[in-house]
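This part of the workshop introduces the protein records we will be handling. A record pairs a protein's sequence with a compact description of its fold. Comparing a sequence with its tokens is the quickest way to learn the format. The record below serves as our worked example for the rest of this section:
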Amino acid sequence: MHPISKKLYKIYKKHNPSVPTNFLKNKKKREKILENKLKFPLRFFKNMDAVDVACGTGDYSLIYAQNGAKVKGYDFNENSIQIAKKIHKKFKIKNSIFEKKEFFSIKKNFDFVSCTATLHHLPNPMKGLNFLAKKVKKNGF
């Protein structure tokens, strides 16, 4: 693991912002953000090949999957990935896979690329944004 990642991981484990208190409550908030602020109706995700980079405990990933997307959720924090997998199992959500993966190690391109509350933590946020833009398939989002 990169030294910056190690330092960030130590801080993140201590103050994990994505430990869910109530998935269903958080889900409603995030659905409103998607539909009202970002103007993505939930039906938009049907048949999408999506990735949620730095997915945390997978709130957005799971919403995409519940609405028909095939989703991969990646995060460098193993604890968050395990929580996402538990929620996935508890709510019997299909089409979502969660893996521990470093930000810049994603190889595949997707129809829809999502990354929330992360870029500003990177040493070079523009490099992160440019990397994510290259992961979007032609005519993707």
